[in-house]
Specification:
Blueprint (H helix, E strand, L loop, with lengths): L30 H18 L10 H12 L1 E5 L5 E2 L5 E2 L3 E3 L2 E6 L3 H8 L4 E5 H7 L4 E5 L7 E3 L4 H5 L2
Parallel strand pairs: 5-7
Antiparallel strand pairs: 1-6, 2-3, 4-5, 7-8
Helix pairs in contact: 1-2
Length: 161
């Protein structure tokens, strides 16, 4: 199973950032965002290191995954999303690198950066990850200064007990 690399751009519309990035939302406002910021900062330091490529310290990324697993995600519900007549739930998706991703946010503040007034729901990250179809990832804070993809192959790690 591959481990997500927070801060790697997944599309031209996604701007990776660090905890001290600019932007209109306060960051971090919860433990998930603190862990995300630490993982991004570590990823940037590893990427900026000179010399032969070595596997960086994965502890901040693993801490982020563990913290996210116990945290909540804010899921935007544009028109047509949400509970359907047949009892299923339709969630918005976006396409990144040939895969489908559900846009989710690490706080209401992050959601509001680009989605002021849009209805949303808050779900436990573990529960959401557990019901996603195989091949679907999570786009954390898409388009915001502090964003990261959770690639489809890494989603099952979030659903673990």
């Amino acid at each position: 199973m591959s481990t997500p690399t927070p801060g790697d751009p997944a599309s031209e519309n996604q701007v990776p950032g660090a905890p001290d990035s600019g932007g209109t939302a306060d960051f971090p406002v919860n433990p998930v965002e603190e862990a995300l910021g630490q993982a991004i900062e570590r990823s940037r330091r590893d990427g900026a290191a000179d010399g032969p490529e070595e596997e960086g310290d994965t502890a901040p990324v693993m801490h982020f995954i563990e913290t996210l697993r116990e945290g909540s995600l804010w899921v935007p519900l544009p028109e047509g999303s949400g509970m359907q007549d047949d009892g299923s739930v339709a969630l918005p998706t976006l396409e990144l690198e040939g895969s489908s991703f559900i846009p989710v946010f690490t706080s209401e503040e992050q959601l509001r950066v680009h989605s002021e007034g849009l209805p949303f729901t808050v779900l436990p990250a573990r529960d959401l990850a557990g019901v996603l179809p195989q091949g679907v990832g999570l786009a954390l804070n898409p388009g915001n200064p502090v964003s990261a993809p959770i690639y489809p192959e890494s989603v099952p790690a979030l659903a673990q007990e």
